[in-house]
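Before the break, one more example. Copy the sequence into your notebook; we will annotate it together after we see the structure.
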Amino acid sequence: LPYSEQSICQARASVMIYDDTSKKWVPVKPGQQGFSRINIYHNTVNNSFRVVGVKLQDQQVVINYSIVKGLKYNQATPTFHQWRDARQVYGLNFASKEEASTFSTAMLFALNSQAMGVACFLLFGAGRLERLLEVLLTPQHAEKRKAAVHLPELTCTES
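Here is what the structure looks like once it is written out:
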């Protein structure tokens, strides 16, 4: 990975896509069931994010998805989360509620960070945004994460 890209979370999950024909969730790659290591990477140069999943069994990349501004992310159950784009509905079936919670916090952080725009990113700087994520992922915030759907509002002011 380029030096400007950092992992902001890691979780284990099965990567699924919704098959419109059969109306069922299926593995993202046929015959590729089982857990993958899912990371959200943050490019600190251009404030972009992507979801990358690597199969634990054979290290194959099963998903490399750019998180775009305005993406609709849905926590369907405590361990199954999904999002869609124009072509596909993606799903992650997590190994545990804790891993799902960690991932959703990072995903919502990514979406809120992009919604703030580049100007706010430059004002805060990568280090301060990464520190905010570290605080949000601490055990003390675990109960708040369970109760909240969205991260707290972020503003473009220096503190």
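Helices lie at 97-124, 126-136, 142-147. Strands lie at 5-19, 24-27, 36-43, 48-55, 61-67, 73-75, 80-84, 89-94. Try to locate both features in your own notes.
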